[in-house]
Amino acid sequence: MKQGSLTRRNFVTAAALGAVAMGAAAATGCSAPAAKDEAATDAAAAEGESMAAADYQNIYADGANLMPARKAKCPGPRGPVAFEAELQGSVDREEDFDVVVVGAGIGGLMAALKAADMGAKVLVLEKMTRGRGCFECFGAVDAKIQKEAGLEIDRAVLLDEIYRSAYYRIRPEAPRTYVERSGEATDFWQAMLDKGANGFIITPVAEAPATNGMPAMTQFIPSELGFYDSPCLPESAGVRSGLSGIYVCLEMQDIAKSAYPENIDMRFSTPAVQLERGEDGRVTGVVARDADGYFRANAAQGVILATGGYDANPEMMEAWTRPEDYAYSSWWNPGWGTTGDGHMMGLAVGAQMDPIPHPVMNFRWGTPTSFADFRTWNAVYFGILVNGRGQRFVREDGPFQVVSNAQNAQPAFGKNCWYIFDEAMSEGLEDGGFEEFKSKGWLYEGNTAAELAEACGIDAEGLQATLDRYAGFFKNMRDEDFDRDLNITMPFTGGKLYAFTSNSNVLATVGGLCIDANCSVIDMDDEPIPGLFACGNVSGSFFAGNYPRHIPGTSIGRAITFGYVAAESAVNGTIGVGPKLDGNAPALFAYAEGGAVSDEALANSEDLGMWNPYAPIHGSSLDYTPEQLGGNAMACENCHEYRAGGETVADGMKWLAE
Length: 658
Ligand SMILES: Cc1cc2nc3c(=O)[nH]c(=O)nc-3n(C[C@H](O)[C@H](O)[C@H](O)COP(=O)(O)OP(=O)(O)OC[C@H]3O[C@@H](n4cnc5c(N)ncnc54)[C@H](O)[C@@H]3O)c2cc1C
Prior knowledge:
One of its GO terms (biological process) is steroid metabolic process. This protein is of the alpha/beta class. It is built from 17 helices and 18 strands. It folds into 3 domains: 91-359 and 510-572, FAD/NAD(P)-binding domain; 362-506, Flavocytochrome C3, Chain A, domain 1 (Alpha-Beta Complex), CATH 3.90.700; 586-657, no CATH class. The longest helix is centred in the first third of the chain and has 26 residues, at 32-57. The model is unreliable at 1-37, 208-214 and 619-628 (pLDDT under 50). The protein binds flavin-adenine dinucleotide.
């Protein structure tokens, strides 16, 4: 047995030492003679505890891993981190504002416009030369345009789907705010855009099928909104490029300056580096940095963090997200400014954050350098997706996130997965695609499955078996393995076979600082931190485990809604009341305070056979009702009679094992 590995004996010993130490400390108080003993016992306890912790960590062969989790280097972009735990110089200037918004992405711009529209004097700080903002479509509930189009959304069903998608690991407040206020926020957004020069209009996304061409398996998707009917959008923005959002955000930056020149002061290349807190705990402003050094920006009504996620901070990705969510991924249009500064600024003043690992918004159809090459559209749409064993692993028509997650769960974080398609499915690649992709090593071909498998380096027998089985599903039009809808795809019809590379694509991280219904950031005791608000991807309390792409654009939807609500809360001075933490809830039995089981007690109790008090069925049975004991109403009584030497039901029972 290697040193430090987990054995039952040293685990028990370590726990016992810890208990002895606690008991000793309580018994001796602070008396001087006892202090030496106490120190010795503490040291022994510390050693015992650290031994136990090491035991948990070193469960693999030496050197493989310290923690029982796979690790991976994050290959993603590295942007400029602005958060500073310690300032590198003095703060010599000071300016006063009502509201300071940190980040001029979509959430920050909404917050700034709303606060300004309510009459506040707003400073917007943006670290980069332009604010980010990248999207195609978004969700909302009961916006005017949705009502006019007859799009009805059942609020309770949508809320349930949001909670369900987080496996209920979130509190209800933030999603409820989204559902209740997103329509109003969308109407405000349109009203703001109407002040611009370019005629941006929000309209329903009328395309079918409506989620990036893949069925979304949800009734909500048809309610999605976008900007595709805006006359000003250049052709190249396309419907599905993610670029329409960039133009919308540029327009909003312009509107902020032109429509609210007295209220909004927008500064680029000027990062916030720290939050400032008064003695009463209220966040009073930020320290920011520009070409002349640090300056203090006071915020009488509040600071709104809108710094986005941390997809451009590889170390943070490694620390806070799952390795499979980035290890074999490329990035789609990275923002570079999203380095988690707001997360760190919040944590530094005691904010609570979503539990890790945080979800990553990722999409299928990545190429090694970026997102979808549209010449491969038919191939991806009609083909199948296989791993290195040549086996399918997901319904290929699932929402983007679903397919990504499934690929990332394959061996080596989804490396060596391929779209397999044939000549009939390859339309679109004629325009130079074949040659270009082959020369890059992204595309292989073969006249047979064996030839193709050999070319791209996957298992030939596996691929042949998969193709045969998949072909058989078309007889009854039923995919018996993954329930793909075969009516909207086509079978392989012979001819040449192709394999095109496949990897996931990182768009954003979506876990952040916990917020309440008013978008106040909450602290470790679940109390709102006065003067601190968050919106968009720096905020949390909305997703857990996964970004649910089958629900329309909740990422932009919550960014605009929470930007709007955060601004309103700051200007109105709304602050929620935290929960009563203790109330009359009974204290739980504190196992940790009980004595640890000694080796001697364990040895003695083993003689008791099935009535061993440490056996699972009996443990704590004094507090159980007989009904809880496996339906055997007599169990508890039997046990105690047995201890007294009496007959038990068990004595009369038959045991299959014997
Ligand atoms: C290609 C692509 C397509 C997408 N499509 C969609 C879509 O269709 N629908 C959807 O819902 N979502 C979509 N998303 C996700 C969406 O872009 C984000 O979730 C959204 O932009 C988050 O908004 P935000 O305001 O929180 O942050 P961001 O828009 O990321 O803005 C944060 C800003 O804060 C700035 N900043 C950071 N730190 C500091 C600091 N210390 N001081 C000052 N400024 C700072 C950053 O530079 C940045 O400008 C897409 C993402 C990508 C990459």
